[in-house]
């Protein structure tokens, strides 16, 4: 491991960055270095800006470019202490895209498709609690609180604990799962019992299951989280309660599901339907004929 990499990891650990953020930032700097085939401490500001423009030309999404820019900024501001590089690049504007949502029947099809019990339970758990894929992977046996019928998420996004819903159906299935797999620490362990199933493995499993179920909508297992929020809204639950269950910092983040809720749209009538059709009037010559009789 190079000295620069060690210094960057140390700086990120001092900032208490999550392992996932650390890996994203390291990959950002590695990509920059590979593009120019130079050590990042030998690059000029123009070369860094050229790389950012290359990412745009390559079609990288605004979210991806923002993460890369943040990683590069961190390297030059906190790893190279005496660097003269001044990166004043603003965040890329993210396009506002409504989440794709599956119907309840489509969710049921996805959950019923896997023959593997563990895979089916992962999908059920993600949907039952509206969990992020990282939160599903990080679940422990102690996360399932059957007495209070909640799933405890430990140190989710933003390093926050929260409780979310534990379905009665899910609890019954988890008891069967426990008898078969006997997890001791991680609820959904990987190849070894002392390590969780990887996020990549879970994403691949979801994509394979969705394909086998014949469903084309809903890219990524995060779609089940969108379905959780939207289906609760459609069932009449308060948006503020859903905000707490989802772990959203801002209510505006949760409000986006109002745009895709079927019930919300069904209550609004198109103004085209307000326009009344004109009454059919008899042609003027019909009146003349009647008067002549």
Automatic annotation (TrEMBL):
Residues 97-270 form the Tyr recombinase domain. Residues 1-80 form the Core-binding (CB) domain. Keywords: DNA integration, DNA recombination, DNA-binding. InterPro entries: CB, DNA_brk_join_enz, Integrase-like_cat_sf, Integrase_catalytic, Integrase_recombinase_N, Integrase_SAM-like_N, Tyrosine_recombinase_XerCD. GO terms for molecular function: DNA binding. The keyword DNA-binding applies. Pfam families: Phage_int_SAM_4, Phage_integrase. GO terms for biological process: DNA integration; DNA recombination. Belongs to the 'phage' integrase family. This is Putative integrase/recombinase y4qK.
């Amino acid at each position: 491991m190079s000295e620069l990499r060690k210094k960057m990891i140390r700086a990120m650990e001092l900032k208490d960055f999550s392992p996932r953020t650390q890996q994203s930032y390291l990959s950002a700097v590695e990509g920059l270095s590979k593009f120019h085939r130079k050590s990042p401490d030998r690059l000029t500001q123009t070369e860094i800006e050229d790389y950012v423009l290359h990412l745009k030309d390559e079609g990288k999404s605004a979210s991806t470019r923002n993460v890369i820019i943040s990683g590069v900024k961190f390297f030059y501001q906190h790893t190279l202490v005496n660097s003269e590089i001044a990166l004043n690049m603003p965040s890329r504007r993210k396009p506002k895209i409504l989440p794709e949502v599956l119907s309840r029947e489509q969710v049921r099809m996805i959950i019923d498709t896997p023959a593997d019990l563990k895979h089916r339970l992962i999908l059920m758990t993600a949907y039952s609690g509206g969990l992020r894929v990282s939160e599903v992977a990080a679940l422990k046996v102690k996360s399932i609180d059957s007495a209070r019928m909640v799933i405890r998420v430990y140190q989710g996004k933003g390093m926050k604990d929260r409780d979310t819903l534990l379905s009665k159906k899910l609890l019954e299935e988890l008891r069967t799962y426990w008898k078969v797999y006997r997890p001791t620490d991680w609820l959904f362990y990987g190849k070894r019992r002392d390590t969780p199933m990887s996020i990549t493995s879970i994403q691949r499993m979801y994509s394979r299951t969705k394909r086998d179920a014949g469903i084309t909508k809903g890219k990524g297992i995060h779609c089940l989280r969108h379905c959780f929020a939207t289906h609760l809204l459609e069932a009449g639950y308060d948006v503020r309660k859903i905000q707490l269950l989802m772990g959203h910092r801002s209510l505006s983040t949760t409000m986006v599901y109002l745009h895709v809720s079927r019930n919300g749209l069904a209550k609004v009538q198109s103004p085209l339907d307000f326009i009344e059709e004109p009454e059919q009037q008899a042609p003027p010559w019909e009146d003349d004929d009647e008067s002549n009789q």
